Amino acid sequence: MKRLHRDYAKFESLNLLAALQPEGKTSLYDPHLRKTFLEQIDAGLQRALHSGSTLHGLRVQALFEHMISSFRSVKLLKKEDAGDCYGDDVVVPDFRVVTNDGTCLLVEVKNHYTKEPTRPFRLRVDHLRRMIRYADLVKTELRLAIYWAPWNIWTLNDPTRMKEKGRFVELEFVTATKQNSMVDLGDYMLGTRSPLVMRWLADPLMPRTAGADGGFTFTIGSVEMRCGGQIIPDKEGQNLAFQFMLFGGWDYDGPYPEFDGEGNIAAVVHSFAPKQKRPEQGFEILGFRSSFFSLRYNWLTLEDGIVTSLRRIDDPSRIGLAITDHYHSEALPIWRFLIRPNLADPE
User: Fold this and answer.
1) Minimal CB count within 10 Å: which of 120, 197, 222, 269?
2) Where in the sequence is the domain holding 22, given as residue range(s)?
Protein backbone atom coordinates (compact mmCIF):
# COMPACT_ATOMS: atom_id res chain seq x y z
CA MET A 1 0.00 0.00 0.00
CA LYS A 2 1.57 3.26 -1.16
CA ARG A 3 1.21 6.69 0.37
CA LEU A 4 -1.05 9.08 -1.53
CA HIS A 5 0.88 12.08 -2.80
CA ARG A 6 0.21 15.60 -1.56
CA ASP A 7 1.96 18.86 -2.31
CA TYR A 8 3.11 19.44 1.26
CA ALA A 9 5.22 22.48 0.43
CA LYS A 10 2.21 24.20 -1.11
CA PHE A 11 -0.81 23.16 0.93
CA GLU A 12 0.63 22.37 4.37
CA SER A 13 2.61 25.61 4.48
CA LEU A 14 -0.55 27.56 3.60
CA ASN A 15 -2.62 25.66 6.17
CA LEU A 16 0.03 26.32 8.82
CA LEU A 17 0.14 30.01 7.91
CA ALA A 18 -3.63 30.19 8.30
CA ALA A 19 -3.44 28.40 11.67
CA LEU A 20 -0.83 30.84 12.99
CA GLN A 21 -2.34 33.95 11.39
CA PRO A 22 -3.51 36.31 14.15
CA GLU A 23 -7.18 37.18 14.35
CA GLY A 24 -8.25 40.40 12.76
CA LYS A 25 -8.01 41.85 9.30
CA THR A 26 -4.49 40.73 8.44
CA SER A 27 -3.69 40.04 4.80
CA LEU A 28 -1.99 36.80 3.78
CA TYR A 29 0.21 38.96 1.54
CA ASP A 30 1.42 41.19 4.39
CA PRO A 31 5.27 40.88 4.40
CA HIS A 32 5.32 41.37 8.18
CA LEU A 33 2.97 38.37 8.57
CA ARG A 34 5.30 36.23 6.49
CA LYS A 35 8.34 37.33 8.52
CA THR A 36 6.57 36.60 11.81
CA PHE A 37 5.35 33.25 10.45
CA LEU A 38 8.86 32.13 9.50
CA GLU A 39 10.18 33.19 12.92
CA GLN A 40 7.44 31.16 14.63
CA ILE A 41 8.27 28.13 12.49
CA ASP A 42 11.95 28.38 13.32
CA ALA A 43 11.29 28.78 17.05
CA GLY A 44 8.84 25.86 17.08
CA LEU A 45 11.25 23.66 15.14
CA GLN A 46 14.04 24.43 17.59
CA ARG A 47 11.82 23.48 20.54
CA ALA A 48 10.84 20.23 18.85
CA LEU A 49 14.44 19.29 17.93
CA HIS A 50 15.50 19.77 21.55
CA SER A 51 12.67 17.60 22.92
CA GLY A 52 13.74 13.98 22.87
CA SER A 53 10.32 12.71 23.94
CA THR A 54 8.62 14.65 21.13
CA LEU A 55 11.04 13.34 18.49
CA HIS A 56 10.84 9.73 19.67
CA GLY A 57 7.06 9.89 19.89
CA LEU A 58 6.72 11.25 16.34
CA ARG A 59 9.29 8.76 15.05
CA VAL A 60 7.41 5.79 16.48
CA GLN A 61 4.16 7.11 14.98
CA ALA A 62 5.90 7.24 11.59
CA LEU A 63 7.31 3.75 12.22
CA PHE A 64 3.82 2.37 12.90
CA GLU A 65 2.39 4.10 9.84
CA HIS A 66 5.01 2.67 7.50
CA MET A 67 5.04 -0.75 9.14
CA ILE A 68 1.28 -1.36 8.89
CA SER A 69 1.26 -0.06 5.33
CA SER A 70 3.96 -2.59 4.42
CA PHE A 71 1.95 -5.52 5.82
CA ARG A 72 -0.74 -5.15 3.12
CA SER A 73 -3.34 -6.36 5.63
CA VAL A 74 -5.24 -3.08 5.72
CA LYS A 75 -7.26 -1.32 3.02
CA LEU A 76 -6.83 2.14 4.48
CA LEU A 77 -4.56 3.90 6.94
CA LYS A 78 -5.16 7.58 7.60
CA LYS A 79 -3.98 10.11 10.14
CA GLU A 80 -7.02 10.80 12.27
CA ASP A 81 -5.55 13.69 14.25
CA ALA A 82 -4.60 15.75 11.17
CA GLY A 83 -6.39 19.06 10.70
CA ASP A 84 -8.82 20.89 12.96
CA CYS A 85 -11.35 19.18 15.20
CA TYR A 86 -14.30 20.86 16.93
CA GLY A 87 -15.59 18.98 19.95
CA ASP A 88 -15.98 19.11 23.71
CA ASP A 89 -13.76 17.10 26.05
CA VAL A 90 -12.25 14.84 23.39
CA VAL A 91 -8.77 13.74 22.33
CA VAL A 92 -8.30 12.55 18.74
CA PRO A 93 -6.28 9.31 18.34
CA ASP A 94 -3.42 9.11 15.85
CA PHE A 95 -4.79 6.86 13.10
CA ARG A 96 -7.89 5.36 11.53
CA VAL A 97 -7.33 1.87 10.14
CA VAL A 98 -9.61 -0.25 7.95
CA THR A 99 -8.46 -3.88 7.75
CA ASN A 100 -8.91 -6.19 4.77
CA ASP A 101 -11.98 -7.76 6.39
CA GLY A 102 -13.62 -4.33 6.76
CA THR A 103 -12.99 -3.81 10.49
CA CYS A 104 -12.50 -0.14 11.35
CA LEU A 105 -10.28 0.83 14.30
CA LEU A 106 -8.91 3.98 15.85
CA VAL A 107 -5.29 3.53 16.93
CA GLU A 108 -3.28 5.63 19.34
CA VAL A 109 0.46 4.92 19.03
CA LYS A 110 2.67 5.02 22.13
CA ASN A 111 6.42 4.60 22.58
CA HIS A 112 7.31 2.90 25.87
CA TYR A 113 11.00 3.20 26.64
CA THR A 114 12.23 2.21 30.08
CA LYS A 115 15.41 0.87 31.64
CA GLU A 116 13.32 -1.01 34.21
CA PRO A 117 12.04 -4.29 32.68
CA THR A 118 9.10 -4.53 35.09
CA ARG A 119 7.89 -0.95 34.72
CA PRO A 120 4.35 -0.94 33.26
CA PHE A 121 3.08 1.32 30.51
CA ARG A 122 1.10 4.23 32.01
CA LEU A 123 -1.44 6.67 30.61
CA ARG A 124 -3.36 9.41 32.38
CA VAL A 125 -6.95 8.45 33.12
CA ASP A 126 -8.36 11.79 31.93
CA HIS A 127 -6.44 11.57 28.64
CA LEU A 128 -7.71 8.05 27.96
CA ARG A 129 -11.25 9.00 28.92
CA ARG A 130 -11.28 11.80 26.34
CA MET A 131 -9.95 9.44 23.63
CA ILE A 132 -12.65 6.90 24.47
CA ARG A 133 -15.25 9.66 24.27
CA TYR A 134 -14.05 10.54 20.77
CA ALA A 135 -14.17 6.86 19.76
CA ASP A 136 -17.71 6.56 21.14
CA LEU A 137 -18.82 9.65 19.21
CA VAL A 138 -17.55 8.26 15.90
CA LYS A 139 -18.75 4.74 16.82
CA THR A 140 -15.33 3.11 16.30
CA GLU A 141 -13.33 0.88 18.63
CA LEU A 142 -10.14 2.30 20.11
CA ARG A 143 -6.84 0.44 20.40
CA LEU A 144 -3.41 1.34 21.79
CA ALA A 145 -0.42 0.31 19.66
CA ILE A 146 2.46 0.21 22.13
CA TYR A 147 6.07 -0.08 21.02
CA TRP A 148 8.00 -1.70 23.87
CA ALA A 149 11.29 -0.21 22.73
CA PRO A 150 13.75 -2.20 24.92
CA TRP A 151 12.34 -5.47 23.52
CA ASN A 152 11.61 -4.20 19.99
CA ILE A 153 8.09 -5.65 20.30
CA TRP A 154 4.69 -4.21 19.34
CA THR A 155 1.39 -4.95 21.05
CA LEU A 156 -2.11 -3.81 20.14
CA ASN A 157 -4.33 -3.55 23.20
CA ASP A 158 -7.85 -2.64 24.22
CA PRO A 159 -7.37 0.31 26.62
CA THR A 160 -10.63 -0.41 28.45
CA ARG A 161 -8.98 -3.52 29.94
CA MET A 162 -6.14 -1.55 31.57
CA LYS A 163 -5.95 -1.33 35.34
CA GLU A 164 -6.70 2.02 36.95
CA LYS A 165 -4.26 3.23 39.63
CA GLY A 166 -4.94 6.71 40.92
CA ARG A 167 -4.64 9.24 38.09
CA PHE A 168 -3.26 6.62 35.69
CA VAL A 169 -4.17 3.40 33.96
CA GLU A 170 -1.42 0.78 33.70
CA LEU A 171 -0.56 -2.17 31.50
CA GLU A 172 2.23 -4.62 32.28
CA PHE A 173 4.31 -6.11 29.48
CA VAL A 174 3.28 -9.71 30.21
CA THR A 175 -0.41 -8.79 30.16
CA ALA A 176 0.06 -6.68 27.03
CA THR A 177 1.60 -9.62 25.14
CA LYS A 178 -1.11 -12.00 26.32
CA GLN A 179 -3.86 -9.64 25.14
CA ASN A 180 -1.96 -8.55 22.01
CA SER A 181 -4.13 -8.32 18.86
CA MET A 182 -1.48 -7.13 16.38
CA VAL A 183 -2.51 -10.15 14.32
CA ASP A 184 -5.56 -8.09 13.28
CA LEU A 185 -3.19 -5.68 11.50
CA GLY A 186 -1.18 -8.41 9.76
CA ASP A 187 1.51 -9.25 12.30
CA TYR A 188 2.72 -12.79 12.97
CA MET A 189 5.72 -14.66 14.35
CA LEU A 190 8.21 -16.31 12.00
CA GLY A 191 10.32 -19.40 12.26
CA THR A 192 12.72 -21.34 10.02
CA ARG A 193 15.42 -23.97 10.23
CA SER A 194 18.82 -23.27 11.75
CA PRO A 195 21.52 -22.35 10.98
CA LEU A 196 21.30 -19.72 8.26
CA VAL A 197 24.62 -19.61 6.43
CA MET A 198 26.12 -17.36 3.79
CA ARG A 199 29.28 -18.66 2.08
CA TRP A 200 31.51 -16.50 -0.10
CA LEU A 201 32.94 -19.08 -2.50
CA ALA A 202 36.43 -18.45 -3.84
CA ASP A 203 36.81 -18.45 -7.62
CA PRO A 204 39.12 -21.46 -8.29
CA LEU A 205 40.31 -19.92 -11.58
CA MET A 206 41.68 -16.84 -9.83
CA PRO A 207 44.80 -16.64 -7.62
CA ARG A 208 44.33 -17.83 -4.05
CA THR A 209 47.52 -16.91 -2.27
CA ALA A 210 48.61 -16.93 1.35
CA GLY A 211 50.70 -14.02 2.58
CA ALA A 212 53.63 -14.20 4.98
CA ASP A 213 51.51 -12.44 7.59
CA GLY A 214 48.88 -15.21 7.45
CA GLY A 215 46.49 -13.23 5.28
CA PHE A 216 44.80 -14.68 2.18
CA THR A 217 44.06 -13.10 -1.18
CA PHE A 218 41.20 -14.49 -3.23
CA THR A 219 38.32 -13.45 -5.51
CA ILE A 220 34.70 -14.19 -4.63
CA GLY A 221 33.31 -16.28 -7.45
CA SER A 222 29.79 -16.72 -6.10
CA VAL A 223 27.70 -16.44 -2.96
CA GLU A 224 25.86 -19.44 -1.56
CA MET A 225 22.97 -19.24 0.93
CA ARG A 226 21.97 -22.21 3.08
CA CYS A 227 19.19 -22.96 5.57
CA GLY A 228 19.61 -25.92 7.88
CA GLY A 229 22.40 -27.21 5.63
CA GLN A 230 20.34 -27.04 2.43
CA ILE A 231 21.27 -24.71 -0.45
CA ILE A 232 18.66 -22.03 -1.23
CA PRO A 233 18.51 -21.87 -5.05
CA ASP A 234 15.89 -19.17 -5.72
CA LYS A 235 16.45 -15.41 -5.56
CA GLU A 236 13.35 -14.76 -3.43
CA GLY A 237 14.50 -17.28 -0.84
CA GLN A 238 18.04 -15.92 -0.85
CA ASN A 239 16.74 -12.39 -0.27
CA LEU A 240 14.54 -13.56 2.61
CA ALA A 241 17.37 -15.53 4.19
CA PHE A 242 19.62 -12.47 4.04
CA GLN A 243 16.96 -10.36 5.79
CA PHE A 244 16.52 -13.09 8.42
CA MET A 245 20.27 -12.96 9.04
CA LEU A 246 20.32 -9.18 9.41
CA PHE A 247 17.16 -8.62 11.44
CA GLY A 248 16.24 -11.98 12.99
CA GLY A 249 18.18 -11.52 16.21
CA TRP A 250 20.13 -14.78 15.94
CA ASP A 251 23.73 -14.94 17.11
CA TYR A 252 26.41 -14.40 14.48
CA ASP A 253 29.42 -16.69 14.11
CA GLY A 254 32.10 -15.66 11.64
CA PRO A 255 33.62 -14.86 9.39
CA TYR A 256 35.73 -18.02 9.30
CA PRO A 257 37.57 -19.65 6.38
CA GLU A 258 37.14 -23.05 4.77
CA PHE A 259 40.01 -24.72 2.91
CA ASP A 260 40.14 -27.33 0.16
CA GLY A 261 42.28 -30.48 0.23
CA GLU A 262 45.29 -28.60 -1.09
CA GLY A 263 45.19 -25.97 1.62
CA ASN A 264 43.77 -23.26 -0.61
CA ILE A 265 41.00 -21.08 0.71
CA ALA A 266 37.65 -22.35 -0.59
CA ALA A 267 35.15 -20.08 1.12
CA VAL A 268 34.50 -17.52 3.85
CA VAL A 269 31.53 -18.43 6.02
CA HIS A 270 29.00 -16.30 7.93
CA SER A 271 26.65 -18.31 10.15
CA PHE A 272 23.57 -17.30 12.18
CA ALA A 273 21.82 -19.43 14.80
CA PRO A 274 19.74 -18.83 17.96
CA LYS A 275 21.51 -18.82 21.29
CA GLN A 276 19.24 -21.56 22.65
CA LYS A 277 18.30 -24.25 20.11
CA ARG A 278 15.30 -26.60 20.05
CA PRO A 279 16.39 -29.30 17.55
CA GLU A 280 13.51 -31.59 18.51
CA GLN A 281 10.91 -29.20 17.05
CA GLY A 282 12.52 -28.97 13.61
CA PHE A 283 12.63 -25.15 13.43
CA GLU A 284 13.68 -22.09 15.42
CA ILE A 285 11.83 -18.84 16.13
CA LEU A 286 13.10 -15.73 14.35
CA GLY A 287 10.73 -13.14 15.81
CA PHE A 288 7.72 -11.03 14.91
CA ARG A 289 7.21 -9.57 11.47
CA SER A 290 6.75 -6.17 13.16
CA SER A 291 10.09 -6.54 14.95
CA PHE A 292 11.88 -7.11 11.64
CA PHE A 293 10.42 -3.93 10.18
CA SER A 294 11.06 -1.90 13.34
CA LEU A 295 14.71 -2.89 13.54
CA ARG A 296 15.30 -1.91 9.93
CA TYR A 297 13.40 1.37 10.33
CA ASN A 298 15.46 2.09 13.46
CA TRP A 299 18.61 1.73 11.35
CA LEU A 300 17.26 4.39 9.00
CA THR A 301 16.12 6.89 11.61
CA LEU A 302 18.34 6.52 14.71
CA GLU A 303 22.01 7.12 15.36
CA ASP A 304 23.35 6.21 18.81
CA GLY A 305 19.80 6.50 20.14
CA ILE A 306 19.32 10.00 18.68
CA VAL A 307 16.50 10.61 16.19
CA THR A 308 18.10 11.74 12.93
CA SER A 309 15.13 11.34 10.60
CA LEU A 310 11.35 11.17 10.54
CA ARG A 311 11.68 9.31 7.27
CA ARG A 312 8.70 9.18 4.91
CA ILE A 313 8.71 6.36 2.38
CA ASP A 314 6.27 6.29 -0.52
CA ASP A 315 6.36 2.48 -0.73
CA PRO A 316 7.05 1.06 2.77
CA SER A 317 7.11 -2.52 1.42
CA ARG A 318 10.62 -1.73 0.16
CA ILE A 319 11.98 -1.93 3.71
CA GLY A 320 9.59 -4.57 5.03
CA LEU A 321 10.15 -8.30 4.81
CA ALA A 322 9.85 -9.23 1.15
CA ILE A 323 7.65 -12.20 1.99
CA THR A 324 4.46 -13.08 0.15
CA ASP A 325 1.58 -15.15 1.53
CA HIS A 326 2.02 -17.74 -1.21
CA TYR A 327 5.78 -18.20 -0.69
CA HIS A 328 6.73 -21.86 -0.19
CA SER A 329 10.16 -23.45 -0.34
CA GLU A 330 11.62 -26.77 0.80
CA ALA A 331 15.04 -25.11 0.94
CA LEU A 332 13.88 -22.21 3.13
CA PRO A 333 10.79 -23.44 4.99
CA ILE A 334 8.91 -20.75 6.89
CA TRP A 335 6.62 -21.24 9.86
CA ARG A 336 4.04 -18.51 10.46
CA PHE A 337 2.41 -18.26 13.89
CA LEU A 338 -0.79 -16.20 14.08
CA ILE A 339 -1.02 -15.36 17.77
CA ARG A 340 -4.54 -14.53 18.93
CA PRO A 341 -5.22 -12.46 22.08
CA ASN A 342 -6.23 -14.19 25.28
CA LEU A 343 -9.04 -12.08 26.74
CA ALA A 344 -10.44 -14.73 29.08
CA ASP A 345 -9.09 -13.11 32.23
CA PRO A 346 -10.70 -9.89 33.52
CA GLU A 347 -7.33 -8.10 34.01
Assistant:
1) 222
2) 1-50
